[in-house]
Known about the structure:
The protein contains 17 helices and two strands. It has helices at 2-6, 9-22, 28-38, 45-56, 62-85, 97-101, 103-124, 127-150, 158-183, 188-215, 218-221, 227-230, 236-244, 247-259, 265-274, 277-294, 303-317; strands spanning 90-91, 94-95. Helix 2 packs across helix 5. It comes from Candidatus Marimicrobium litorale.
Amino acid sequence: MQDIRATVAAEFDQVNQLIVDQLHSDVDMVENIGHYIVDAGGKRLRPLLVLLAAAALGKNDETHISFAAVIEFVHTATLLHDDVVDISTLRRGRPTANAEFGNAPSVLVGDFLYTRAFQLMVGLGNMEIMTHMAETTNTIAEGEVLQLVRAGSPDTDETQYLDVITRKTAILFAAACYGAATLAGASNTQREALEEFGLNLGIAFQMVDDALDYDGDPHTMGKNVGDDLTEGKVTLPLIHALRTGTPDEKSLLRQAITDRSAQNIEAVTTAVQRCGSLEYTRVTAREYRDSALRQLASLPPGKARDTLEQLAAFSVNRNR
């Protein structure tokens, strides 16, 4: 990630500073929780996409700095809300904001970050960006509700899973790229290509996340293995194992999903590994990565486009 960030290092530092500046509030709790989750770090992958897409188009100015902060604020707000809904206790190697401060403050500060994002967008003075981001945040909310509705249902299929991760995760990747291209004055062809790049990249990224939930190192990931199962999330590794496993494995998996329990996580992990479900998930993720890479052909050759390719490779080859 350090090599990837180096391509837009100066702009990336400006985004981080703007995020800190925009966390200012007269209400101490807002600043405390805002800084708590932002200071935890993270990959900053979504704002990085804004900067790299803009750089690939040959224009990276203050509007892209502001829009990158918008994207990160929207993402951070969803994390705060997600952790409350999922009753999560660990993120990025330390207690979640809801575990540290409580559910109500976390939800309300998440609301603050959403509204701060839209204040920044108003400052951009671009109605197309406003419209697109309003639609994007609405779609994310729908994805969260769909995931909640389908939690604990072992009958969730691959199409339904893809629908959820597209709405919940990939759509913000797509919006980051589309917004960057719009602000750069790119052609419709380039905007659509970058949006499709972001969408496919986001799907691939989420699929790898879902595989890591069953074979990742909790110390490296900064979260507990098996969290998805505890939350009743039926992700691609489970869907594939339910389709290909033995009757006993299917019974085990259905029970674990229905109970929303990681009590038998070792047996569940053994089943998804024996069925080749983790490899199936990663192969599928690589297919979406390849679809993303094909969209970059409309961009001019250069360091930034090469770095977007590097970022796509990182998204499917990571261990956290």
